[in-house]
Amino acid sequence: MTTIQEAAPREPAGVRREALYFAVRNGKLMAGFGIVLVLLLLGLFGPLLFAGVPNDYGTRPMSPPSGEHWFGTTTFGQDVFLQFVHGLRSTFVVGVIGGGIAAVIGMFVGFVAGYRGGIVDEVLNMLTNVILVIPTLAVLLIINAYLGIRSVAVQGLFIGLTQWPWAARAIRAQTFSLRTREFVDLARMSGSGTGKIIAKEIAPNMSSYLFMTFILLFGGSVLIASSLDFIGLGPTEGVSLGLMLQNANQWSALQLGMWWWFVPPGAAITAIVGALYVANVGLDEVFNPKLRET
Amino acid sequence: MRRYFGRKLLIYGLTFFVAVTVNWMIPRFMPGDPIASMVARANVTNAQAVEAMRAYYSNLFGLDQPLWQQYVNFWGALAHGDFGISIWLFPTPVTDVITQAVPYTLALIIPSVLLSWVVGNRFGAYAARRKLLDNTVLPVGYVLTAMPYMWLAVLLAWGFGVLLGWFPVAGGYSFSMRPNWSWTFVLDLLHHWALPFLSLFLVALGGWAIGMRNMIIYELESDYSSYLSALGAPSRLIRRYAFRNAVLPQITGLALQLGVLVAGALVTEIVFAYPGLGSLILKAIQNKDFFLLQGTFLFIVLGVLIANFIIDIVYVVVDPRTRAGMAGAQA
Amino acid sequence: MLRLDDVTKEFRIGAFGGKSVAAVRGVSFEVVPGEVVSLIGESGSGKSTIGRMILGLNPVTSGSITFDGLPVRAGKEYYRRVQGIFQDPFSSFNPVFKADRVFTMIKEAYYPSVPGPEWAAKVEESLRDVRLNPGQVLGKYPHQLSGGQLQRLLIARALLLDIKLLVADEITSMLDASTRIDVLNLLAELKVRGLSVLYITHDLSLGTYLAERTVVLRRGSVAEMGPTERVFGDPLHPYTRELLSAVPRLHETWDDAVPVETCLYHLKGGTGGLAEADPGHFVACAQLETC
Amino acid sequence: AGCTGGGSTPTPPASQPQSSQGAVTNPDQLPRNETLYTTGTQWGPPPNFNPIREWDSAVGTKGLVYETLFHYDTTAAKLSPWLAASGAWTDDTTYEVKLRPGIKWSDGQPFTAKDVAFSFELGKMETIPYHHLWNWLKSVEATDDQTVKFTFSTANYQQWDFMLYSRSIVPEHIWKGRSEKEVLDGTNENPVGTGSYKFLSKDQDRVVLQRRDDWWGKTTLGMEPKPRYIVDIATPSNEVAMGMLLQKGLDLSNNFLPGVANLVQGNFGLTTYYNEPPYMLSANTAWLVPNTTKKPMDDPAFRKALAASVDVKKIVEGVYGNLVKAASPTGLLPQWDKYVDQSVVSSSGFTFDAAKAKKLLAEAGYKDGDGDGYVENKDGSKISLSLIVPSGWTDWMESARSISASAKTVGIQITPDFPDFNALVERRAKGDFDLLINNERQLSNSPYTYYEYMFQLPIQKQQNTVNFARYENKKAWDLVEQLDQVKTDDTAGMQKIISELQQIHLDDMPIIPLWYNGLWAQSSTSVWKNWPSAEGGAPKTGAVMWRNWLELGGFETLTQLQPSGS
Amino acid sequence: MSLQVSELRVYYRTLKGDVRALDGMTFELRDGEILGLVGESGCGKSTLGKSLIRMDGRMRRVGGTVTLDGHELPIDDDRRMNDYRFREVSLIPQYAMSALNPTRKIRRMVTELLRSRGTALDTAELERRMDQVGLPREVLDRYPIELSGGMKQRMVMVISTLLDPSLLIADEVTSALDVSTQKAVARALLGFRDSGYVKSMIFVTHDLALTHHIADTIMVMYAGKLAEKAPADVIVKAPRHPYTRLLLESLPEVGVRYTERRLEGIAGSPPSLLDPPAGCRFRDRCPIAGEECAQEPPVAELAPDHHVACWKA
Ligand SMILES: Nc1ncnc2c1ncn2[C@@H]1O[C@H](COP(=O)(O)OP(=O)(O)OP(=O)(O)O)[C@@H](O)[C@H]1O
Ligand SMILES: Nc1ncnc2c1ncn2[C@@H]1O[C@H](COP(=O)(O)OP(=O)(O)OP(=O)(O)O)[C@@H](O)[C@H]1O
Ligand SMILES: [Mg+2]
Ligand SMILES: [Mg+2]
Ligand code: NI
């Protein structure tokens, strides 16, 4: 996983037009978002375009990709492509929910700790450390095992609840350097309270940074979700790319030569997460002139 | 300095306390009764016998005591290094189960974490600002980091294990062997270790390489780099300096990523049927063996804490800024 | 109007607050209405810290700061009467928003009921006061404006409120020689209109240009203070002399400060705190070996 | 050599010639051609070697290291003497066992009748799994070194036979002083048994057993298990076992390997008992268990309609790829075919028939009043049942989905639900469920065990192992108890009672048989051949290392193996 | 004749077009001479400094030459320029505070830097120079973070001049310092020249008064062009260019009080260098501009060593 650099905050506004200019010319950004967009659209509209219930048994089990079944079928004759498009959807849902919740918590903790400093910072820091040190997957394993995960959304929720610490740290560091900026003092002298200052002065200055944090959290959530699905702690309802992987693995798809069952979901996860990471680096270059290739 | 470490220790202590408490709590407040399934497994038909066994085991595991008492006992036992008895692997003490498994997990995690970190950093530093490498080899890095651990692991197991037959797909050493200190055995160990290691290594490698690349670019654009080049210093020197500075955030990154890496190791172990904590945890969950679960979990927390502590020390040693007490935002 | 009584400020520093530095120690002085007081001292002597404490942005560690007899309480009411301008005009504006947002914020907080057009007129008037052409500066992003323009926007902003005291912290250090003088002239005009200014600087020439009284700070405490012409005309403290001699002057070459043989503080009978050399002219112990 | 079987292991060939002589072998490196690799029984580190802990002791503890008085021959359906030379009822309540002479414990001490009596008397301890034996056993007594006399207060012949081949005999001279805790919970390191193997080593993922060449059976029984070493591997999951099987690092997998049919058909050197569906022998019956204390499952008519609604064929084909066989309406395993009363089945049996199911529902008064496609209770309230199977049991999860789908076609609303195994156990015990799938009763010496499972009374607050349906039928239970007291060689007597029980079962349908789970056994012929098979002269025993199955033919299979190389 | 810059044009490539930061600069610098370079922010002072030692990626030489001690400097060839850097041309950057690698002790850094340039560190010489600027020797065994701003500034000075370069460019080395440190640093620079560590020096600042104290010659730049260049006293006492004059008039001096003498700034702001107006670039702000100012004024030598670019001068 890429770590976000704890670089000095940048001044995005003036550069906004320029940023757009570089954005459309940044190969990494465009390629990354392009791939994600294609998969997203497939996930969004695929289930509508291709009728059928993804888990329904078909008549031709274990058949390789063909005109009828684009990605072949599973041991049970389920259409892999149909599962794939539904799975994409859940993957995006997990990413958005997990990444979103983690981003919200991370932002809250990071902003408050960084802005208030002092004892508040210490306490929040401690909390962050605790969550950070406890192996996330282990906790998720336990939570999942005992509470059970029914839906993709609940899974996303739990992932979100455990994934925020590094984001909080990064945001805290950024806030730390922003809060000494004089416009923050000026806002205080204009009668703004803490919340307002964070929301109106500090956050907008980090918008690109926050967005990138979200991207990384999104990717992280997708990966964690796939791991959980894979070891059988995924949602019990619906389809997801991780569940497809798990099923393919459990029913020995590769050993039985059914690569078409195992490869697409993993490749799609890799593509989504990888493309996001690439886009993230692209974004970094767009917002930070120093990183641009000269 | 003393104060700094005192503070750190306090934080670690508290973290440990909270982690242990959470760890103790979770299983106890969850539905499902471990004794029930234990008795169920014993396949005893007779109602009386079942009751007798239940009572006996509840008493044995101390589950018939009030909660607070259980909690106190738990800490008391911990102090003696006693993690209780495994339910699933009854009557093996959890400590025994873990000590058997831990060498494997460590043998997997430590080299893959360290090597991927070292190699990834070197590699990323090397690729930074070198157009050709940057545009050809680094994308591979992105693909690697973005891979779900187990997907890569399964592909490796299938490709190199089943298809090509180069590597075994299960076990920590040949099932035909007994541990001994011969070269044959050591080679055999390595042979089994190779694929799980590789899958962990590759995924982590990509991440570090990318992180380092970005970091180095920042450093190459920094003032001290410009100064050096204005004085005509060769780019070798400049890169060396940049590397040293860029490595610092990567050290922090290591601390942040440790949890994820451990998780990756667990999944990989499961895929490769590699002995170690991974399969233990999975089975402990499946069998509701919460003493074992607590033990492994605690062990990981302890491991991560210690690793973090080491990283903290290393950080202070290599970054003079922390020593000068200026890096308030780090930590 | 503004009174500082034995104000001390300590900062905890180090990764975990292991050490503490006293940035300001036992500083007392007063600013009366319509007066410009300049606060002079080398870098790190605690000037900004005093300014920030007066503005309620940092709490004091001990001692008291009162404004019109009341202790400083950061809040809407206080800021209606006391405002500050900081050293760096570029970082005083949130780069994400247009520069005139500083006015909007004032309106939202203090004049929510004033109708739009009326407010716009008020802003324009205030801009003209600082000799800015409203058309030129409104609706622009900070980076599209020069440092001088930004600095004057900030002054205009402070003027929208009917303030009594302005804390101007090194407001000219970033500016060009020519812009700088414009800003100084503006402050001087405001003073004439009855505004008090605490003018913080390390450039003595700028300090003397405006101020009636000067406070020379050294390592957090007052070295010398008094009417400007006295402090510069007859510097009593060796530090003040050193500072004076270090200022590059156009038509003179550098000479070294005239060494002080005797500690004027003790000569003037100082026993504790500052000694009053002449009426209103105070000096601290020079800490010469003889003392 | 080596674990992979491929040519690329780093194992030097030096060890090979050494091993082929079979005399001295380096125990650090087992010769491939004398070692049997098995998996599918143990899923984690071997926890103990305690034969009293039949359910979780290391593989081979009972059967290879410790032995029982008898084995049970599933094909001939009779006990075969093992440690016992013979056993007979001397009167209605006295059973006398004659032991084989000359048997020694692995520590060299002679094996005597005292050891047998001691082993059974251990059951007097409350927490020992066979404690209830002492409810009807009055005393056990070693009358001389070779004779043991059992005196019963009630002679439960059926159960007694089960005891005879299930209880490990432990050496009195070692176990005598052990406390109850030690007997039940001791790990019993360094087990001393009479069996043909001893434990050589263990690790987190394996136990290694070494053959005892001085085993008594070699001469007395004329039997010898062929593998000099048995390595039982704890694989964490099925697909790993399949990978190892394909790599030829494994000889016998007792895992459920979905899709193995393809491999058997293809040229992978894998065999199963049958080379066509169902490929495996049957090991137990999977039942659909309705909670008969809840509405509408308390209505036999509803249960029968439900039974007719389940398309087991679809599960067998779709989920299992024909690796299992649909169960007969009685649910009795094929091995018990002779106890099935065909007349009862033909008159009262059921088959999958959606139309009939609908009809039954309609006749019993379950109608879809509100037009949502699902029938309601007679009082008009909605029927919405949940079917629980443990989360992670993928084949069952798929099956549950399938059941839900076919129930839907007849108008019964069933939602599959996958709680955690533990939670399921608890709900099952408390009766807090609508429907569940269960297969916990294995093949045994008598259908008695199945009927006990079906009808046992009284219903407790917690039903831990039997009668999860909480079905109360006094008459049925009386019949079961009667059956217990029929001598096991009285086939006709048994058939008569069983026929009545079958009638009750099919009329009332307390639990619904679904399919027969296989005696999963996939073997590789690369090193060992002559695996059990339906064909020709091949052995007909089961090729399993599962606990309690070595006595049911698993051990005999080992003696029939032949090295492929020779 | 140490440095000769003729008709130097250096542009920045930007999205919106070329920024003409240096637009035909011509001047000379003699051996032993200190040239003070003053001008408003953004007039191209740093650009000139950078052009002489290391152009960054966005800079482009459009025309002109730079000759140092008779050799033409390959200023736009980064590789060849390396031979001259440090040995012939050296730099004290504007960012001296952050110019030292934070994770190396200073001694080590200096050693490594010198070794990389093929020279061994002469510790005695280094310490002598440190003494000269008043740096204690233990500074060498500290990390940069442990030094104050002024110390860092002086350390960089010592390092930059270790190889006795012919030309030293000191870019705003004192602007971030307070007056007393500023004085010490400025004096140290003078000392370096006098000790012969550097032959000549370009001292970039926007503080006219400070320049006056150390420079022999002062060059005033306006919007990428030379406005006036003359010996320091001449500039201060008898400036000819209207811009210079206005600049001088806006300088407050110690003792000058608002109430006594009101100073005035220069109205208006410098033109954008993206698309600079034709003719005299100061025309818009110039109180005495006339018709002829629509033409670009040539640089004329009005008196010996007194160059002015103004029609009215
Ligand atoms: N937030 C803070 N935390 C710790 N130390 C601080 C903080 N702010 C200021 N200081 C310390 O307090 C002292 C005085 O700082 P202050 O900013 O008031 O000086 P100054 O006179 O304004 O200097 P300058 O002329 O450089 O602005 C310095 O030593 C500084 O390091
Ligand atoms: N990297 C760059 N890209 C584009 N334009 C630049 C760049 N650097 C400087 N400029 C422009 O070139 C002109 C000259 O800049 P330069 O830095 O030389 O000014 P300066 O005289 O040193 O100013 P200061 O006193 O603020 O340091 C300015 O108009 C500036 O905007
Ligand atoms: Mg300050
Ligand atoms: Mg500059
Ligand atoms: Ni004194």
From TrEMBL, chain A:
Coiled coil: none
Residue ranges of every copy of the ABC transmembrane type-1 domain listed in the record: 88-282
Signal peptide extent: none
GO CC terms in record: plasma membrane
Keywords, sorted A to Z: Cell membrane, Membrane, Transmembrane, Transmembrane helix, Transport
Matches recorded under Pfam families: BPD_transp_1 (PF00528)
Superkingdom as given in the UniProt entry: Bacteria
Residue spans crossing the bilayer: 29-53, 92-115, 127-147, 153-171, 209-233, 259-283
SUPFAM superfamilies (alphabetical): MetI-like (SSF161098)
Membrane topology reported for the UniProt record: Multi-pass membrane protein
GO molecular function list: dipeptide transmembrane transporter activity
Localization (cell): Cell membrane
Chief location bin: membrane
CDD domains: TM_PBP2 (cd06261)
PANTHER family: D,D-DIPEPTIDE TRANSPORT SYSTEM PERMEASE PROTEIN DDPC-RELATED, OLIGOPEPTIDE TRANSPORT SYSTEM PERMEASE PROTEIN APPC
Annotated family: Belongs to the binding-protein-dependent transport system permease family.
Protein name stated in the entry: Peptide/nickel transport system permease protein
Species in which this protein is naturally found: Nonomuraea fuscirosea
From TrEMBL, chain B:
Keyword Aminoacyl-tRNA synthetase set for record: no
One GO process term, biological-process aspect: transmembrane transport
InterPro entries: MetI-like, MetI-like_sf
Record Pfam families: BPD_transp_1
Similarity comment: Belongs to the binding-protein-dependent transport system permease family.
Residue ranges constituting the ABC transmembrane type-1 domain according to the UniProt record: 102-311
One of the record's GO cellular component terms: plasma membrane
SUPFAM superfamilies the record matches: MetI-like
Coiled coil: none
Designated name of the protein: Peptide/nickel transport system permease protein
Membrane topology classification: Multi-pass membrane protein
Keywords noted in UniProt: Membrane, Transmembrane, Transmembrane helix, Transport
Keyword Transmembrane: yes
TM helices/strands, residue ranges: 9-26, 101-119, 140-169, 189-210, 254-277, 297-318
Top-level taxonomic group: Bacteria
Cellular localisation: Cell membrane; Membrane
From TrEMBL, chain C:
PROSITE patterns per UniProt: ABC_TRANSPORTER_1, ABC_TRANSPORTER_2
Lineage of the organism: Bacteria, Bacillati, Actinomycetota, Actinomycetes, Streptosporangiales
Name the record gives this protein: Peptide/nickel transport system ATP-binding protein
Highest taxon of the lineage: Bacteria
GO terms, biological process: peptide transport
Organism listed in the record: Nonomuraea fuscirosea
Pfam family, one: ABC_tran
Record key words, sorted: ATP-binding, Nucleotide-binding, Transport
Domain ABC transporter: 2-244
Signal peptide: none
PANTHER family, A to Z: ABC-TYPE DIPEPTIDE/OLIGOPEPTIDE TRANSPORT SYSTEM, ATPASE COMPONENT (PTHR43230), ABC-TYPE DIPEPTIDE_OLIGOPEPTIDE TRANSPORT SYSTEM, ATPASE COMPONENT (PTHR43230:SF3)
GO MF, one example: ATP binding
UniProtKB/TrEMBL annotation, chain E:
Pfam families assigned: ABC_tran, oligo_HPY
Presence of the UniProt keyword Transmembrane helix in the record: no
Zinc found in the keyword field: no
Biological process annotations from GO: peptide transport
Location of the ABC transporter domain: 3-248
Keywords: ATP-binding, Nucleotide-binding, Transport
Highest taxon listed in the record's lineage: Bacteria
Gene Ontology MF annotations: ATP binding; ATP hydrolysis activity
Cross-referenced PANTHER family: MALTOSE ABC TRANSPORTER, ATP-BINDING PROTEIN (PTHR43067:SF3), OLIGOPEPTIDE/DIPEPTIDE ABC TRANSPORTER, ATPASE SUBUNIT (PTHR43067)
Designated name of the protein: Peptide/nickel transport system ATP-binding protein
Organism in which the protein naturally occurs: Nonomuraea fuscirosea
